[in-house]
Amino acid sequence: RRLLLLGEGNFSFAAALCGAPGTQVVATCYESEEEAAGRGGAARSIRRLRDSGAEVVFSVDCTRLREHFLPGEREFDRVYFNFPHCGRKAGVVKNRQLLARFFQSCAEVLAQEGEVHVALCSGQGGTPADQPRREWHNSWQVVAVAAAAGFVLSHVHPFEAETVQGYKCTGYRSQDKSFCLEGALNHVFTRSSAPLCFTPMSCQTQLGSQKVSFQVPQVLVDKINRGFLEENSSHPVRTIKEKLSAGLSQAFPLQSISSCLPLLQQGHPDGVCHSNIFWITLSSGEAPSTEKTSQGVANPVLFSPSGQDTDGNIQEGCPIPQQFYLRPSLLPHARAIIKERAFSPGTLQVLSGPVFRKCRISPHSTPVFHEMLVVLAVSRGTEDSCIQVLVDSIRTTLSSLHQGIKSSISLQEAASFGTELNDFAAFERQLGEIQHFLCVGTDPEPSGSCVGVIRTAADELKSSELVVVSASLNLDLLAMLLCGISDWRMLWTSDRRFLRQFPEGELRLFKSFSLYPPSYVHDVSFWVPDGEEFDEVAFHTLARRVSGETVVSIQLRDNFLQPGTGRRSLCYRVTFQSCDRALGCREAAEMQLHFREEIQHHLGVTLR
């Protein structure tokens, strides 16, 4: 490994690292060799470094690193910058600017999988790891300035100077004096994954007996056809689905529906509000008119290429009967199986796949999630006992998975997990009451925020002898609860560090690779068109699309009715925060400006 050390005072830290097998140390400082050698112990450390084969470079500006190293010498695996400071009595603003320029420069010399280690005195970083924690404006805001250069904070731990043999801190107010290291922290930064490019995307699916293509709503471009449930996937949603299937097979004969279920449905969606539907326009010339679809609908279809916008909304003046939409549930597919009698009574039929619903923004409200639907036809009069067996089987499997994850965590690991372990403990408390997970006889929330729903339907079969029992499970929320994932967006990240934590489908407690991500708050206020009901779901969907799912919260701050005119004004607070990649304040501000333009264009509001 190639190690670059910046801002060395007396070179004692660099000297402690040199000589390790397989490492090449490049130690630098800002001062000239004559100035640096004058510090106590510096000459001895420099001599030791050179004797061990390390490179010592003087007069290195940490904000212009590429100028000091040739192109072939810029791939450092680790960069250390211990206790950076502008010198003398420089305040927080100047030191914040120093860090910002350092991170920008560091991005040019760091290997793709490299790490940046920044040690700061107590309180300087401004993260929750600092105890006591300074007010935000009085800190160096290290995570935010790093984010602007494309870095995320992946680890933070105490800077234990006593474990570094021979290390002595120096440089207090640019003098050869030590400073207090009590409460000092080492911050480890890594490169963020690149922002996704949401280019228009078309998708093919089966509709009846023909294949059709359609344009995917822009907010779903990075979520369509991800293959999380495919056989070669190690994603936790697939692991949970397989474990649940295995558990259910202990209580019932089980048959998995392996055929590819169509993404599109036709007709009037049952049990889901029209504003929560992603309406779809088929590509020109491909809309079938009277052909039966997989759900047996044979009504004529009105085809309007201009009737749907990029978010899957029906535009004003376009009739809803164009009737194609992304499936909000797998239940219609199950009904088709029931109607065709393509099942054996007493055998559990298992269907699974992603389903799509527009919803308001929150950490547990998912516009797309993986549904596992199990359907069982039982003799009339036995449905209550079958439901109990079904519930007990699901509960037993979840308890087993939970205990397996819990037992795999050592005491040392538990101390490093922090908030993730607290979420996990909350799950353990919730597991005692099955109603937290399975709502019997009710419809699921539009956002998919209910983990499971059990239904009975006596009229599905039109039989006096059989009753249909179905259970719908939200695999995404189960994965979040079991693995301690606090934000649904992490399940859909493109960062490879997520799946690395679940090798070969093993369920583990998730440890975030982006700690304490910075958030940016913006307000937007506008007049609502006269006489119209404001579509808040469409407002939230626009925010999702414009921000690339980096809006984490939208709160109504004010609802004002102007006296005399009756005009209504709304004010919302929009909070930008990414859970998996670097998001800088400038990028968030640009998103906010774009969001203002889009709501004016698509929702017809008048900005204030």
From TrEMBL:
Q: Tell me which Gene Ontology terms the entry assigns under biological process.
A: rRNA base methylation; translation
InterPro entries reported for this sequence:
aa-tRNA-synth_II/BPL/LPL, BMT5-like, Fdx_antiC-bd, Fdx_antiC-bd_sf, SAM-dependent_MTases_sf
Q: Which Pfam families match?
A: BMT5-like, FDX-ACB
One GO MF term on file is: phenylalanine-tRNA ligase activity
Q: Where in the cell is it found?
A: Mitochondrion matrix
Q: Which SUPFAM superfamilies match?
A: Anticodon-binding domain of PheRS (SSF54991), S-adenosyl-L-methionine-dependent methyltransferases (SSF53335)
Indicate the enzyme's highest-level EC class: ligase
Mind listing the UniProt keywords for this protein, alphabetically? Aminoacyl-tRNA synthetase, ATP-binding, Ligase, Mitochondrion, Nucleotide-binding, Protein biosynthesis, Transit peptide
Q: Which GO terms describe its cellular component?
A: mitochondrial matrix
Q: Which domain of life is it from?
A: Eukaryota
Q: What is its EC number?
A: 6.1.1.20
Q: Which reaction does it catalyse?
A: tRNA(Phe) + L-phenylalanine + ATP = L-phenylalanyl-tRNA(Phe) + AMP + diphosphate + H(+)
Q: Which residues form the FDX-ACB domain?
A: 515-608
- Give the family per the record: Belongs to the class-II aminoacyl-tRNA synthetase family.
Q: What is this protein called?
A: phenylalanine--tRNA ligase
Origin species, per record, is Rhadina sibilatrix
Gene that this polypeptide is encoded by: Fdxacb1
